Amino acid sequence: MNDRHPPVRAVYEDRVAVVTLASENPLNPLADDLVDALVAELRRIDADPAIRATVLTGSSKAFAAGADVKAMAPLDYAAAFRQDVIGRNWDAIRAHRKPLIAAVRGYALGGGCELAMLCDVVIAAEDARFGQPEVVLGIVPGAGGTQRLPRAVGKSLAMQMCLTGTSISAADALAAGLVSQVVPTDRLLAEATRLARSMAAHSLPVLLAIKEAVNRSFESSLSEGLLFERRQFHAGFALKDQKEGIAAFRERRDPAFADE
Ligand code: CO8
């Protein structure tokens, strides 16, 4: 890692972390040192009781333009398998427990699009472009493109994007449900931070439980997911914050959550 140019920068302020992918190449190829630094930062955030939500963003040119193609070029099957390319650090991002908002400017391609889809909410600047161009390189998406993209945008558009390698605009991503909002490019970070703060106003254990429950909906049958949700709901009665939230509502005041 280049000490003078860390590939990931983080600012913690008022219960929210803003993590910026800041590779020397503004296209943010997802080199090992960048992804390792991202994983380390997300672990720090999970361990920090003062932080309740995170914005993940990139450069003005790209959220991330995908795997580091130059580093991938010399690999053969044995090396890829031995090094557990992608699996080695990608699952650690998925394991992040607190709300994670992707704020995408410019290109989110290949692993960059897959990284955005690993986040809980994706908001896009007007100039954002999303795509899975792996097919152009003669490879298959490797970090969720064939699995998360169809869940996000449906089979037809996912197939079109993966089989042609062509990208879609922010407006098309919004229409397809890949992103939850599109904002003017110069407002992106402010809007993403505002969104993170509106999450961070709530009780951390409740935020964690909601994230777990929504993610469970992608992994289980409806009846199992509903049972999981109901048990989370029941478990909420053990939280002081549940008593505080209900009392504050009844007393017409803001709740003071203690994350307990
Ligand atoms: N990896 C490494 N270097 C890259 C990458 C990349 N993904 N993208 C661009 N670069 C480099 C270029 O080689 C060039 O370097 P140099 O100046 O030394 O030649 C420099 O960045 C600038 O690039 P361009 O001149 O191409 O910039 P443009 O503004 O003209 O174009 C694009 C920008 C459209 C983003 C274009 O660079 C491009 O198409 N890049 C490749 C995008 C791509 O194919 N991404 C998918 C990669 S495969 C993948 O992501 C598999 C996912 C696996 C999961 C990964 C988990 C870690």
From TrEMBL:
GO molecular function terms noted in the UniProt entry: enoyl-CoA hydratase activity
Domain of life of the source: Bacteria
Gene3D superfamilies from the UniProt entry: 2-enoyl-CoA Hydratase, Chain A, domain 1, Lyase 2-enoyl-coa Hydratase, Chain A, domain 2
First-level EC class: lyase
Keywords: Lyase
Keyword Kinase: no
Regions that span the bilayer: none
Swiss-Prot/TrEMBL GO biological process terms: fatty acid beta-oxidation
PROSITE patterns noted in UniProt: ENOYL_COA_HYDRATASE (PS00166)
Catalytic activity of the protein: a (3S)-3-hydroxyacyl-CoA = a (2E)-enoyl-CoA + H2O; a 4-saturated-(3S)-3-hydroxyacyl-CoA = a (3E)-enoyl-CoA + H2O
Catalytic activity, EC: 4.2.1.17
Assigned protein family: Belongs to the enoyl-CoA hydratase/isomerase family.
Matches recorded under PANTHER family: ENOYL-COA HYDRATASE, MITOCHONDRIAL, ENOYL-COA HYDRATASE-RELATED
The name this protein goes by in its record: enoyl-CoA hydratase
Organism: Amycolatopsis bartoniae
Gene, per the UniProt record: paaF
